[in-house]
């Protein structure tokens, strides 16, 4: 949550900071602010405003513009203290000013200490404590010593960009449990919470590791351990450019990302297929390792957890290996029974989700093997897992996850095929057949994307509802969970996903003509049973949208609208069936006039508990 940026170079930095922040607004948009070393009097000048970046820009037009070549910026997702001008970052004073992403867990204790030393607090934020603690330790001469002292005292997660009054051409940065990269251009250097923020200016960057200190000036960056020892770091070049991180003519990132799914699947799957068979050896996952795991735990949050649920159905069905799916936030606190023969799979687009990261650390502590399915290269979860299978979806900017889900399930399919082959529950021929079907999925999705108008029409029929149900059985239930989350997070229509057979155990009492039902029925062996449940809700007045295979004949009375999908193996239908669900949610959000890519109260990367 929150995005931070920084620039030091020859150019005026205000525009650069604002541009970089615009690429990070997906991380939070409760307020924004920048601090710049004024190039005339070398003092730190700050301007900040509640609301979106555009509100800050508006404010800047009304006030003196900041002129200087060194500055830091912030876009906020509020945790401590309501969204307001005063709680906005940067925080600090004339000597030390900071931007912060993360949470300082012991801020109350530190605040009491600082108050006892005469400091007066203005905001309700945890961040102000760090700004004041830096000021307390800063002797006017040695920023690194000051930072070392502060690192020893603060607990929690942080990525910090820091300006010290006496070093007007330098940015200091540190991180722990919150992401931060250091960009290197010609005669300039950057900090940012994520790579897209700097791509307009450079593709070269360093990944700051836990507890490292970066010192940036026009010549680039130097890195130190938290003990102050100088270290060298590898310069990385981003494998995507600014254009692929931009909207590319689509009205919203979400729509663009939905359309990028066929390519994302190809990029993710092709490198993991050798001679028609799944092959994860490039990720360090060998057949020998796979054959040894007795149980699998899949841990994730939100959409990534829904991808894991599809994984569970497929792995259990094909490979007969027991799979438990847990919400990362629950897993940590339920004292899970894990041992060395278990494989724990962490799924995360960002690779920075705090709960998932904590679950990974817990699994490692008990000696379980850990593997992550992660989209962002070099993210914390990727770095700390024993094995990483990167998904190659490219940057996902829209808060609502679409293409990341698609490639996460693609990886689960390949894994299930390989595991089933190793466990001898399917033959080599069957394994090859399944892989070949999967390789056709991108083209099939291209066809499904042509159903956009139908999905938009269906959305127009739902858009005035306050509540909605998604129902399905088996894999269709897993899919319903994702459809429901997508709808509620961007359209703000309340919805729930129910296992179709479970409705009659309570929830059906909610069904009236005011409760539309989206029924997903792509599993042919369960089709008749799901249609029976559809009839039950229809009989109680519900408007029904049925999503099924082209090949299924549907009784005209059964549903009000039917979306017919191309037919492939039922097991792979979630990859096809999720597309209309994403499109319905997208159009519902557009029709309601919502900010599709930045839904209220949410942030893309949830680096707090
Ligand atoms: O970055 P992660 O995949 O770990 O994020 C997990 C969830 O926060 C994320 O999937 C969230 O549920 C999305 N907004 C859903 O669209």
Features:
single chain, 609 residues, alpha/beta, Glutamine Phosphoribosylpyrophosphate, subunit 1, domain 1, 3 domains, 8-stranded antiparallel β-sheet, 7-stranded antiparallel β-sheet, 18 helices, globular, binds 5-amino-5-deoxy-1-O-phosphono-D-mannitol
Report a brief summary of the structure.
The protein has 609 residues and is α/β, with parallel strands linked by helices. It is 35% helix and 23% strand. It folds into 3 domains: 3-243, Glutamine Phosphoribosylpyrophosphate, subunit 1, domain 1 (4-Layer Sandwich), CATH 3.60.20.10; 253-439, Glucose-6-phosphate isomerase like protein, domain 1 (Rossmann fold), CATH 3.40.50.10490; 452-591, 3-Layer(aba) Sandwich (Rossmann fold).
Q: Per CATH, what is the topology of the largest domain?
A: Glutamine Phosphoribosylpyrophosphate, subunit 1, domain 1
**Ligands, ions, cofactors:** 5-amino-5-deoxy-1-O-phosphono-D-mannitol
Summed over residues and divided by their number, the pLDDT gives a mean of 93
Instruction: Give the total of beta strands.
Output: 27
Rg measurement, Å: 25 Å
Task: Outline the structure in words.
By secondary structure, the chain is of the alpha/beta class. The chain has three domains: 241 residues, Aminohydrolase, N-terminal nucleophile (Ntn) domain (Glutamine Phosphoribosylpyrophosphate, subunit 1, domain 1); 187 residues, Glucose-6-phosphate isomerase like protein, domain 1 (Rossmann fold); 140 residues, 3-Layer(aba) Sandwich (Rossmann fold), CATH 3.40.50.10490. It is built from 18 helices and 27 strands. It has an eight-stranded antiparallel β-sheet with strand order 3-2-4-1-10-9-11-15, covered by helices on one side. A hairpin with a 6-residue loop joins strand 2 and strand 3. Helix 7 packs parallel to helix 13, helix 9 runs antiparallel to helix 16 and helix 14 runs parallel beside helix 18. The longest helix is centred in the C-terminal third of the chain and has 22 residues. Bound molecules: 5-amino-5-deoxy-1-O-phosphono-D-mannitol. 5-amino-5-deoxy-1-O-phosphono-D-mannitol (M6R) binds next to helix 9 and helix 16.
């Amino acid at each position: 949550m929150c995005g931070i940026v920084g620039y030091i170079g020859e150019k005026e930095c205000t525009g650069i900071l604002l541009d970089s922040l615009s690429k990070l607004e997906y991380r939070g948009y409760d307020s924004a602010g920048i601090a710049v070393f004024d190039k005339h009097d070398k003092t730190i000048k700050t301007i900040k405003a509640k609301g979106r970046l555009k509100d800050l820009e508006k404010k800047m037009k009304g006030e003196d513009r900041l002129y200087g070549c060194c500055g830091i910026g912030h876009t906020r997702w509020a945790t401590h203290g309501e969204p307001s001008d005063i709680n906005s970052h940067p925080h600090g004073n004339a000597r030390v000013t900071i931007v912060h992403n993360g949470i300082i867990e012991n801020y109350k204790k530190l605040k009491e200490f600082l108050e006892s030393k005469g400091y007066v607090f203005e905001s309700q934020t945890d961040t102000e404590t760090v700004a004041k603690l830096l000021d307390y330790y800063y002797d006017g001469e040695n920023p690194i010593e000051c930072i070392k002292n502060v690192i020893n005292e603060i607990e929690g997660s942080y990525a910090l960009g820091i300006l010290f009054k006496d070093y007007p051409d330098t940015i200091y940065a540190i991180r722990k449990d919150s992401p931060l990269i250091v960009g290197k251009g010609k005669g300039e250097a950057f900090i940012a919470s994520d790579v897209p923020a700097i791509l307009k200016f450079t593709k070269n960057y360093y990944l700051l590791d836990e507890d490292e200190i970066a010192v940036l000036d026009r010549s680039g960056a130097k890195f130190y351990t938290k003990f102050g020892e100088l270290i060298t770091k590898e310069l990385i070049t981003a494998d995507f450019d600014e254009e692929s991180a931009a909207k590319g003519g689509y009205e919203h990132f979400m729509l663009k990302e939905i359309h990028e799914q066929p390519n994302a699947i190809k990029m993710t799957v092709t490198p993991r297929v050798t001679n028609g068979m799944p092959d994860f050896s490039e990720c360090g996952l060998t057949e020998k390792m796979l054959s040894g795991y007795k149980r699998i735990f899949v841990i994730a949050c939100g959409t990534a957890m829904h991808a894991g649920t599809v994984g569970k159905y497929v792995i259990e069905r094909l490979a007969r290996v027991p799979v438990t799916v847990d919400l990362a936030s629950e897993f940590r606190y339920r004292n899970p029974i894990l041992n060395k023969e278990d494989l724990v799979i962490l799924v995360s687009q960002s690779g920075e989700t705090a709960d998932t990261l904590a679950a990974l650390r817990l699994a490692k502590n008990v000696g379980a093997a850990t593997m992550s399915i992660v989209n962002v290269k070099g993210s914390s979860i990727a770095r700390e897992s024993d094995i990483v299978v990167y998904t190659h979806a490219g940057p996902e900017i829209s808060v609502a996850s679409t293409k990341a889900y698609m490639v996460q399930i693609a990886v689960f399919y390949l894994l299930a095929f390989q595991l089933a082959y190793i466990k001898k529950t399917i033959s080599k021929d069957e394994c090859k057949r399944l892989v070949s079907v999967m390789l056709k999925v991108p083209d099939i999705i291209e066809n499904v994307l042509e159903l956009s108008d139908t999905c938009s029409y269906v959305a127009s029929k739902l858009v005035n509802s306050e509540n909605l149900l998604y129902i399905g059985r088996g894999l269709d239930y897993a899919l319903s969970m994702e459809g429901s989350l997508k709808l509620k997070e961007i359209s703000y229509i309340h919805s729930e996903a129910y296992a179709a057979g479970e409705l009659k155990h309570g929830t059906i009492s909610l069904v009236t003509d005011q409760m539309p039902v989206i029924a997903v029925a792509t599993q042919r062996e369960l089709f008749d049973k799901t249609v029976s449940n559809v009839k039950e809700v229809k009989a109680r007045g519900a408007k029904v949208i049925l999503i099924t295979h082209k090949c299924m004949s549907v009784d005209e009375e059964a549903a009000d609208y039917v979306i017919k999908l191309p037919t492939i193996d039922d097991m792979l239908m979630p990859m096809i069936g999720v597309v209309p669900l994403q499109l319905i949610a997208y159009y519902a959000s557009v029709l309601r006039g919502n900010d599709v890519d930045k839904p209220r109260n949410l942030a893309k990367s949830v680096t707090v508990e």
